[in-house]
Amino acid sequence: MNLLIAPDSYKDALSAGQAAQAIADGLRRALPQADLVICPMGDGGEGSLDALLEATGAERRRHEVQDALGRPTLANWGWNTADRTAYVELAEASGLQALAPQERTALHTSTHGVGELIRAALDVGAQRLLLLLGGSATNDAGTGMLVALGAQLLDEEGIPLPPGGGELERLHTLDLSGLDPRLLELRVQVAVDVDNPLTGSRGASAVFGPQKGASDSDVARLDAALATFADHVNQALGQDYRRTPGTGAAGGMGFTALALLQAELRPGIQLIMEHVGFEKLLKTSDLVITGEGRLDAQSLAGKTPVGIARAAKCFGTPVVVLAGSLDQGWQAVYPEGVTAAFALADRLMKLEQALPRCAELLADRAESIGRLVQVKLPK
To answer: φ, ψ for residue 157 (rounded to 5)?
Structure first.
């Protein structure tokens, strides 16, 4: 029997690789003779870089960049020499988890560090870039990245704007003439796990700004500021992308990648499956076990377990989801190709009790799945 183990990370508990190993440990208790294939996955959010590196064997590199508040930090990125592809995860440079709660300020955080990582990739000859969005602390529409790559954002007096999305309300001149010319030859794909537009009631500021420290008044200011930036981009290009699904990803980074890097926006799970050769693995698998921290109706928007289930459905391969919790509307995943779904908890427990036990609970549930697989029901 061939079992494919392909979980996402379990936030604040296990990386995708650690989760996969825990599932494998449990399966081996019940099915010691089974062939286990481990393929950690992600949907473009935090931890997707680690999953890609483990699955593809790409080289992990580190580069000193600015974090979301302009402080020096070491950020990881991936380099696949064989096809000259760089993997850049926004959260490595500009991630929310790197900031203490009191440091989170959506008005002032910047994606400058992401641009520094892209420049490092260009310096080694990158021809393709997979930009992984998710887990951002920023709401600057990727303008910090643009500045790091050579653009200038100037106020009415010709003075460069300070970092942060809130400053875009004072944008008077968008000067793209200094953008790194190597970007013209770079094929950019962007992994997004949301379909929100840049602005409006479902835009980056309104939906994601509060979790990044934005008050109600900050949200209104940021939404107007991003609209001002979009106006300037529209004037420069003659095309308005602000309503395109996915442009609100990572505080509007999706917008700038699409409009100014000529990027292709794709659901993250689809892109990552392509890069790791997931379809080939599915063809030889009898069962797929996946999972992540929570399964609910929102998982249908492009989260890892549902993306995997949709792909597996094409091959008639059953999929079992092991989730930290099953929340409202989780049953909607069944028509998407999920065969069965299970929560990890073995008794009533609080989140702070469950997190340290995540590996243990995953292994136990996986063992139960393995034992069930062995059962031969009477005809």
So the answer is: -95, 5
Q: How confident is the model at residue 50 (pLDDT cuts 50, 70, 90)?
A: confident
Q: DSSP code of 305?
A: H
Let me know: does 131 contact 275? Beta carbons within 8 Å.
no
CA-wise closest residue to 261 among 235, 227, 237? 237
**pLDDT 10s digits, 104-147:** 999 999 999 999 999 999 999 999 999 999 889 999 999 999 99
Per-residue pLDDT band at 254 (split at 50, 70, 90): very high
Torsions phi, psi for 203 (to 5 deg) = -80, 180
- The domains of the chain are located at 2-40+286-374, 48-269
Secondary structure letter of residue 138 according to DSSP: -
Beta bridge partners of 62: 76
Per cent of the chain over pLDDT 90 is 85
pTM recorded for the entire structure: 0.87
Q: What are phi and psi of 30, to 5 degrees?
A: -95, -30
pLDDT at position 224 over 80: yes
CATH topology for 48-269 is Glycerate kinase, domain 2 (3.90.1510)
Q: Report the C-alpha gap between 30 and 370 in whole angstroms.
A: 5
Q: Are 107 and 221 in contact (CB under 8 A)?
A: yes
CB 29 within 8 Å of CB 370:
yes
Given strand 287-295, what is the order of strands in its sheet?
35-38, 2-5, 287-295, 319-326, 340-343
> CA 48, CA 151: separation in Å to the nearest integer?
28
| Alpha-carbon distances, residue 283 vs 279, 280, 366, 369 (angstroms) | 6, 5, 22, 21
198 and 245 in contact (C-beta within 8 Å)? no
Q: How confident is residue 51, by pLDDT bands cut at 50, 70 and 90? A: confident
User: Which CATH architecture describes the domain 2-40+286-374?
Assistant: 3-Layer(aba) Sandwich (3.40)
- The rounded distance, in Å, linking the Cα atoms of 265 and 267 is 7
Neighbour tally for 351: CB within 10 Å = 12
Which residue from 249, 255, 305, 295 is spatially nearest to 134, judged by alpha carbons?
249
Please tell me the total number of residues recorded for the chain in this structure: 379
